[in-house]
Amino acid sequence: MCTSRCTSRCTSGAKGSRRWQKIPQRDDEDSPHAFTVSYVQRARRAAWRLRDVTFLCADAALCGRWVRTLTEQLSALAQRPRRLLVYINPLSGKRHGERIYRHKVAPLFSRANISTSVIVTQHANHARDHLRTEAELQNYDGVVCVGGDGMFSEVMHGLVLRTQRDQGRDHHHPDQDLAQTGLRIGIIPAGSTDCICFATVGANDPVTSSLHIIVGDCQPMDVCSVHHGDAFLRYSVSLLGYGFYGDVLSDSERRRWMGPARYDVSGVKKFLSHRYYEGTVSYLPASDVLGTPRDRAPCRTGCVVCQYNRPLEEEKEGKLKMEESHEGLAWRSVRGKFLAINAVSMSCACPRSPQGLSPAAHLADGTTDLILVRNSSRLAFLRHLLRHTSKDDQFDLGFVEVHRVRRFRFTPRFCQSDSELDLQELLQEKEQKEKEVAGSQARRILGQLCREHPACCRTPPCASCWNCDGEILPHADIQVRYTTLLLLFLPLLLLLAPLLLLLLAHST
Ligand SMILES: Nc1ncnc2c1ncn2[C@@H]1O[C@H](COP(=O)(O)OP(=O)(O)OP(=O)(O)O)[C@@H](O)[C@H]1O
């Protein structure tokens, strides 16, 4: 740490060069002129803090020269934003969004000479619609959202949709090559869960996020576009979950009044109901890529795997066409009964699950980790879920498979005609029905017991719903494609030396 006050003076070096030297502390009267340099220091875990060091000197001209030179050097750093468009959701989380921004974030932006236009949202989708239609994006170097994952999703949708419109791309078409957004997004966490902030920044701390924005590096990020037939449904950046995670979300929506505890209540309820869903998952495996979902190393900013796997802009179309031309060969299908189908485009780490749903998922390699959890006993599923909270491998279980894919489709069983189901499955079903008839007598005896636990007697419903970054999709039958579209304010030097970058120098 460099918080102690030190005095400095200009001396002649061995070769006659003039340079600053630290000397023991002296009285201020000897050095009436001073300037303060603010810099970023890595604190505990992934947190960043702002520190100041004040230099005193007796010579006013020299002091002024130092301030001018440092200021010039700082303004020459092209990656640092100068103008930001900020959206605040006043109702996020505990409704502290505005306060967090005014007390913790705005003072830092102002010290770093960043000018801001602040919009406090008045209703849901305010930020999305403003960005999509009227925001004068050419006036800004980035967009900041103050809120939770829902707010990030709004800003991301607004920016991506606006970019496609400006570039004349048809975002409804599932095969349309989408354009990358030009502006970077910064996330100031103020929501109830803030999973996206935690998974990218490594901490849910408004000061750390603000400093990341000020330092101004840039990290690309994958976005998946979800379609139903030829209709665009939504974009997603973290989790697309069907079955267990879809059911938990739809149940928790009915318990909003409980606050964040609703996820726990719905999670337990849906775990006990133990529903499986039938359908076919078809996927296009990511071939020629570095790494697998079973790697132990997590993705970090500046990740070499992402850089290697991500097709360059000029290669994109060719690569896609190549995959398409081999479509019949490359696509694979899995038909079965699933407790959960999860497509994870980032680790989805959060304080409760520090490793996340797929610890080695990559932020910006144009792929997703498709996790298929087949029907199994409650105990086995519980083992799988509990492994998310420890360092154990959640994929090392017979009923769980994971694939790194560029695209996938899902068709729930009720959408398939009988002719699509193969003979083997029909025979299996027949066998199953015969067993059920034999078991019905036994069930009658246990009727009383089952009435108290209705889930075990009920026929499973035809379909679950998709949880798309915390929003419910209106269709179960979807096709999904991954592209690196977004840019985040994330530093490339997360793991480097404690003293990262000077932020500001000013005379005092
Ligand atoms: N002024 C507003 N009034 C009502 N809803 C709003 C307003 N501004 C934004 N929203 C909506 O509120 C929803 C939830 O917001 P947000 O994600 O910021 O908080 P959260 O739900 O508490 O956090 P998290 O998503 O991390 O759990 C978003 O989907 C957003 O569309």
UniProtKB/TrEMBL annotation:
A GO cellular-component term linked to this record: membrane
PROSITE patterns listed in its UniProt record: DAGK
Ranges for domain DAGKc: 79-230
Identification of the protein by name: Ceramide kinase
Keyword annotations: Coiled coil, Membrane, Transmembrane, Transmembrane helix
Source lineage: Eukaryota, Metazoa, Chordata, Craniata, Vertebrata
Sequence intervals crossing the membrane: 482-505
Keyword DNA repair set for record: no
